[in-house]
Structures are given as structure tokens and as C-alpha cells.
Amino acid sequence: MGATWDGYGVNFALFSENAEAVDLCLFDTDYGAPEVTRIRLREHTDNVWHVRLPEARPGLRYGYRVYGPWNPAAGERFNPHKLLIDPYAKAITGSVEWSDAMFGYPPGPNPDADLEFSNSDSAPGMPKAVVIEPSFTWGDDRLLRRPWNETVIYEAHVKGLTALHPEIPPEIRGTYAALGHEAIIDHFRSLGVTAIELMPVHHFLHDRHLRERGLSNYWGYNSIGFFAPDSRYAAASRAGQAVNEFKTMVRTLHAAGIEVILDVVYNHTGEGNHMGPSLSFRGIDNAAYYRLVADNPRYYMDYTGTGNTMNMRHPRAIQLIMDSLRYWVLEMHVDGFRFDLAAALARELHAVDRLSAFFDIIHQDPVLSQVKLIAEPWDVGEGGYQVGNFPVLWTEWNGKYRDNVRHFWKGDPGHLGELGYRLTGSSDLYAHNGRRPSASINLITAHDGFTLHDLVSYNEKHNEDNLEGNQDGHNDNISWNCGAEGDTDDPEVLELRARQMRNFIATLFLSQGVPMLLHGDEMARTQRGNNNAYCQDNEISWMHWDLTEAEHGLLEWTSRMIAFRKAHAVLTRRDFFQGRSIRDAGSPDLVWLTAEGVQMKEDDWQDPERRAIAMYLPGNLSGLIDARGRLVESESIVAVFNASPDPVQFRLPRLTRPWRWLRAFDTAAPDEPDGRRALRSGQHYKVEGRSVVAFRAPSPSPA
Hints:
The chain is α/β, with parallel strands linked by helices and 703 residues long. Helix content is 20%, strand content 19%. Strand 8 and strand 9 form a beta hairpin.
């Protein structure tokens, strides 16, 4: 499928089950130039239209025109006046230059306009697919295959991360080349992250309505090419060179020990609903690629909130997605995927099916079953919230972790019991079907919502710059805004915000599961209260690297928390806690303590006024085994979480013979070094209001 160069010529192949004829259109190198040649594809095998051009070479620009019935009421939207992007294009050059010609019908105020037929030629304003030279010198590069329990994910945007970095040459800022620059590598290494999760890099659309308002689809969740890295993120200007630049970035990150995970959007495309443009799939075979309403196929099933949903019931649609995934692993060397609105991919009839063909195919695939698979476990359809319901091999963005930790630090009553599950890997969600704590991708913030700084600084969203009257997005601030809304010079408020950010970060890296950090949260990045900056390709979204003293302090704190996590195997368990009582014959692997240093009872968990809890993790007594089957030694840890505004006197537990505890860190005293204060079992330590304190000690023998 697609355009394949073998050194002697190029084979072109396009699937269309319902087409009557297909033309391959070849174009000159100048963007917007008319087509040079139009070739009718005479070969037609198993619903694949194909032709081989022995004189064709890499760099050739092309597109398709597909002939068939125009009957939108029956779900048929063929229109040969529309140039269409090859779904298997490995490279795409140019962007859509919006005009009415991009639509299969003549747009207008008539609500039934989509039933009419447009004779306007869309080719001059359409992106073109590009034949690529696939060879690349990978050397000894390979997938890193880092164990899940050793993984620390950093969610980032290619452009937003690098657009303002002063050490990166201006000509490559905001590109794949910039991501592989030494300055960015050094930041990753000093921070301690092990994997970068890139927001969408598949070639995507900037919606017409956004362009008309001077905005853009900055996030990129509007894919139109599942194989092509978006050329707008390439420093190289020559068509097709984005592929090699992306590969070079991956090779460089791998050499630094950093995995590359792609956020992929296979649940829908950028063509929208029945009033959307005809750019690729709609004009190639609308009924095959999209879920249509069964009794009214003019319309689309919309489980994604974007107007359409890919048809996971059609084998060629599933093949397209699987071929794309394998291509990115085998040819582009990426280490895994995060699936946007993954519940939509599991809908075979209407309900989300945990045993759908999509999961079955991935599980038996010798390539895809071996890489990191992350689900955003919801969509916008009925029954779409599926946290905890994905099968083995899959991890999930744990929305319940995010919400519960926010509720706890806000001081909301009734969330203490759930916090115990969230801190220990969410066994209530993942243990029932054989998964491990690493099934939980723990997050406080992500691209969709407030940044960490804004989470503690705003009560309400401020999305006015999106030009939608602040009606877009949701007020997701389940947090405490530390006493003032927005900007302030009040030093007390600023310190409270800084401490609350330290609390969130400390909680994240003290939790079992896989931590995910939003890019810039380590430096208190702000979007000025915009919690839906999907259309802000500007300094609202970009990372600023000219840090204040406080921002430097948070960066150092985050690095310290990640290093602390890595140094203590009790925080990166591969299996769930068994929770044996200290009265059992065996030793405990987890004990919950009150502020008085005694074991929690059921009444303590149910007490709505209780705001403080301590977690004791014995080290060597828990028999930790790493992913390579080796026994791991670890210090014991006690972590105290106090969400109350009032301090508590915490007594170090008397669970084993007395030994010396060293204070590891205190979010209320972030500048004091590890080990400055030592206490013995039974001694008290003042835990300030709204703070986290951790103690460490060599693992003792049983009492």
C-alpha cells in the first residue's frame, strides 16, 4: 500500500472498495503547480488499485482522484474534482489552503448543502504526498525496552518545548532537530525522565474556522496522514526530508537512553462531520473508513466529539491502523504509543468491547505486543469512560488518580480511602485482570487542562484568547488556588503556591505506577489560566527558559524527587502490595499510619475530617524483584501527607527495632538537604500544614 520505491521504480497502491475508477495525479515540485500527469490505474486486485512507474523516483509529489457515485444520503461521497491524500503517504508537503473547493459540495447556508455536488478543483490548495527514499543509517539503534516500573514519562510538544530555547539555533527551534539538540538532551538527563511522549506528529490539519480567526490547531489532534511525520516540524525544507530528520531525532534520544512514545489519533480524522471537507478518506471510500449512522448513512457516528469516528468494523480500516503502528515501530524506531480516545477504537457495535478486534490483533502481533501501549481510556460516547477496563499489555492514563490527588490536596472530605489505592498503584482498578501497578499512568496534569502552576493559581478557566467567549474547555480545577486568583506579588501566596506544586510533584513520584510529567511543570510553566490552549501556537503555550529563582527551585525539586524515586525500589514495585499485617508470620510490605504513628483502622479511613496519612514501606523485608529477576535492596521509607492547613506532630513508627530515620525531604523546607535531621523510632517530627515529609532508613531485621 502507498508509494513504494525499490531502487528501480515506484509502485502506487490505493484501497477503495466502492470506487469505479482511480487516477494517479503527479505534480511539479512547486507548491500549488498544476498536475503534470494524470494516470488511470488499470490494475485492480482485491479492491486495491495499483500501478508501477519504472521512471518514478523519490521526491515525486502525487495525489489521487477517485470516481464513483455521489449519493451522500447513501453514504457515497465520491468526487473526482477533489485531489485526495494517499492514506499511506510516508511524507506530505504543504498545508491545506482553505477555500470552498476543499469540500465535495458547494458550502453555503443551506443545511442540506452537503447533498449537492461541487465541480471546483481542489488540487491547487491541497497538500501533496511525497515518494520517499526509505534508507537510513540506524547503526546499532534499537528499541530501548525499558521496564515499565523504571519509566518516567515526559509529555511534550515538539514546537512548544523548543521554540524559545536560547541555546538552540533559531533556524531549528520548534523542530525534530531541536528535540535532538544537546540542550534538550541535557535537560532530560538532569531532570531524570526516561521517555518523552510527543503530542501528535502525524500530519494534521489546521481547521478552517481556526485559520479564519488567526488561530491554528496547535495540539495536532486532527490527523490526516497516519504515516507521515508533519513536515511543519522539520527544519529541513526539502519535501520528504522530515522523515530522516525524525529518524535522526529518535536515534539521538535513544543514544541518550530516552524512549520515544507517540500520541496517536486513530479514532477520527480531520475531515469532520458530513459538512466537512473531502481531503482523503471521505473521497476514497467514505463507507469503508468511517462509522456511518446505520439507518441514515448521510451522517457519522461521533464518539470523539470531532464529527466522525474511524470504522473499526472494517478490515481495511483496521489494517491501515495496524500498518501505521508497525511502520512507526519498524521503520521509525519509536518505543510505544499513547492512543487518543482509545475507547472509540474498541467500539465494534455500540458499546465499548474489551475483546474487540482491535485489541485481539495487537495482542497477537509480534511487533506491537512488545512495545509500550498507553490508552486514554475514554471517549465522549455513551459508556465511554473505561478507566480500569482495558486488557493486559495496556497501561492507562489514570484519570481517577489525577482527580483524587487533586481532591486530597484541596482538602475535600471523603477522599482519604481512595488515596490509599492511588498511592499504591490502583489495585482496585487493575488487579482484577492480572495487570500490575505499571498499568496506572499517574498524572496530575496533561496538555488538556491547567498546567501545574495554573492549577494552584486559578479557580476558573481563562480561555478568552481562544475567541470562543470562554465557553470552551471545562473548569477542571479540582485544586486549591492558594488564596488568590491569577498574578500576584504577595510573597505568602507565592510561597503557598510553590509548596502546593512541590506537594503534587512529591506525591506523583512517591506513588506506585508510572509517573507522567507535563512539559514545563518542572519549571512552573503558565498558560495564564487557559486550560484549553489547543489553538494557541504562541507564547501562551510555549515553554519559557529564562527562569526566575523560584522556577529554578522547582526544577531542582522535581529532579530531586525523580532521583529519590529511582534510588528506592520500594517506590517502583512490579507487583501490588499484599498488605500483610504486622501480626502475620511474614513481614509487612505496606503499613498505613495515622499522624500518631499507629496503624490505621477502618474508622480512621472513614473519618471525613482526617486530612493526614502516612505510608510506611519496609525495604529489604518486602522481597523486591526487578524486571530481570534479581533481588533488589532498598531503604525503608515513611512518607507523611498532610493536606490540613494545620501542622501535625508525626511520631516515627515503632514497627521494628529502633533505628535511625533520616529526613529525606520536606516540602515546607525544600532547601534543606537530605539527611540533615536524624530521628529515632518513637520520636516526633512537626509536619507543617499542607506539606509532604519523607523519611528513609536502612531496612532492619524483623522485631
